[in-house]
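pinned: reference chain
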Amino acid sequence: MNFLLETLQLIVLSIYYNVEAIMKFCIPSKKKNVTGEIVLITGAGSGIGRLMALEFARMDVALVLWDISEEGMKETTRLSKERGASRIHYYLCDCSNKTEVYRVAEQVKKEVGDISILINNAGIVTGKKFMDAPDSLIEKTIEVNTMSHFWTNKAFLPAMVNNNHGHLVTISSSAGLIGVNGLADYCASKFAAIGFAESVALELIATGKDGVKTTIVCPYLINTGMFDGCSTKWPTLCPILDPKYVAKKVVDAILTDQTYLMLPKSMYLLMALKSCLPHKQSVILGKYLGAFNFMDTFEGRQKKRI
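pinned: its structure tokens
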């Protein structure tokens, strides 16, 4: 194809996809049917992981829960059954341990079947400034928040590719889009998770596996206890998010094959500003929004606990 034809194709498709995006924004997308799917959620023993399990419990799916807390998973299982879940399985698994992920994954395949919706949700935060964080905690943050995605995808993606059917979900963070003072290791792990997810998505597109969908979720602070004590300077613009609201929005994004989900919607504007503003202006905007001190209360509480 010559230069003129390729350029014309680019212009026409760009117009088409932009019109399509505007229509999807204005008109709610039809939700896909997930009956019979096998949904695996890491970090399902509490927080958003548990709440997403409860959302899926209303649907005719098989739920597979992974966590390092057996008590947490038992409670999630109990609550899910109350919501109507009839097929639910839980497994103790440290997602940061590659060997354990592969071992438990094989067990899941034998006992439940091939995973068709994989939600990488497990995450941790040290809550310490870079120079104050022990090396062991920095390494653990990267292992849980980033490397675990490599191992779970390697374990379950081949079956999705073979069937050209499935969904990969990456629960990242707004801290994976914009660097935050006091969260160097956490931001690095979440930036990496997004980069990994985007690259895998492009590999799937390049190989023609359009039946395997991907969703990347980037919420602001969620009131789950993970960032207990953190505050927001402008709650109208950047509110502390309600966990039930986030879980519902994530499941809706999966059901409508939404590629990116940022919460709240103001994050879309902040990302656009980050891309076009001079660096110094971005810094003063960050100060104005409270990005330089919103971890102060959190750090204070961490010290009290220690």
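why pinned: Confidence is low (pLDDT under 50) at residues 300-306. The chain has ten helices and seven strands.
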